[in-house]
Each structure stands twice: as structure tokens, then as C-alpha cells.
Amino acid sequence: MEYNMLQEEEDDEDFLQHYRMQRIEEMQRQLCCGKRFEHVYELNSGEEFLEALDKEDKSTLIMIHIYEPEIPGCDAMSGSLMCLAHEYPQVKFCSVRSMSISTSALFRESALPALLVYKGGDLIGNFVRLTDQLGEDFFAVDLEALLQEYGLLPEKPPMVPKTLRNGAIIQSNVSDEDSDLDID
């Protein structure tokens, strides 16, 4: 009787171990093989704005920056989104001029830069006049921290080492010859 119970426990443990390995492999495939965007898409009309939302998988997180070049903070937002697009390749980052989607003059003057966050066609984050929270000159880490605070960014994919040199992992292909630190 006790032998049968011990055998069942071993079988359960084997099953759970096998299940864990399958789930890990499945999650790695989704992470590595899922759709990757990796840059900011410029939208040129209200129609393109709607297509950006409607034509993506319902699980895709979409962030749309509404801007005008002359509005303070819009350039900082554009630069920040370019950086985040590389760090979060599974998120679709877009930008659109407010004039292209026929916003009112009042919206342009009082709400830009704006960032809208969508998932499954639903608006889940709506940030207007982000300069009130971040200032006019901010960086990707500032925007990233704000979005993480609201739970609007997925986990970052793990960093994949780019090269191995003498057994050491190097994250970049930049040569050591250009270093500012000289060790003799």
C-alpha cells in the first residue's frame, strides 16, 4: 500500500516537472517568436490611427503619441518612444500629429504631448499634457518609470548576450579600443 502511494507521488512529481518544462518552452517561444515591432510607426490620418488599433492582435499593447512638433515636450516624447520601442519590441509604438486626426485647437494647445494606451481595442491609459508630470525635457527612463507605475508596460524581454570574448559576456559590439579609460 505504501509503495503504491510513493509510486503515485513520484508519477505526480514527474508529471509536474514535465508540465513546467512545457510551459517554460511555450513562454520562451511566445517571447522570442511573437510579433516584434521595434520602432515607432508614424500614422498620417485618422484612418491609419483606427487601422493601427483594429488590425493588431487583441493581446498587443499599442501606445499612440499625439504630438505637434512645435509643442514643448513632444520632441522628448518622440525620442523616449524610440528608445522604448527597442526595449519593448512586443509593444507597438505609434505617433500621429494632432492635425492629422483633426483635433481641436484647444486640445492642441492644452493637452499635448498626449499618450494613449490601448489593448484589445480598449483605451486603458490616457495621459494628456505629460509635461505636467515629466517636465519639458525628459528621457526614456522617466517615461518608462511612469508607465510602469501605472502597470502599462509588460516585463522586459531578457537581454541576450551579443558576443562572447575570452569567456566574458559582452553586451555590446563596441570595441574596447575607443575607451576613455586607459589602463597601462
From TrEMBL:
Domain of life the protein comes from: Eukaryota
InterPro entries named in the record: Phosducin, Phosducin-like_reg, Phosducin_thioredoxin-like_dom, Thioredoxin-like_sf
UniProt domain Phosducin: residue ranges: 2-176
Protein family per UniProt: Belongs to the phosducin family.
PANTHER family to which the protein is assigned, alphabetical: PHOSDUCIN-LIKE PROTEIN
Protein's name according to its UniProt entry: Phosducin domain-containing protein
Naturally occurring in which organism (per UniProt): Xenoophorus captivus
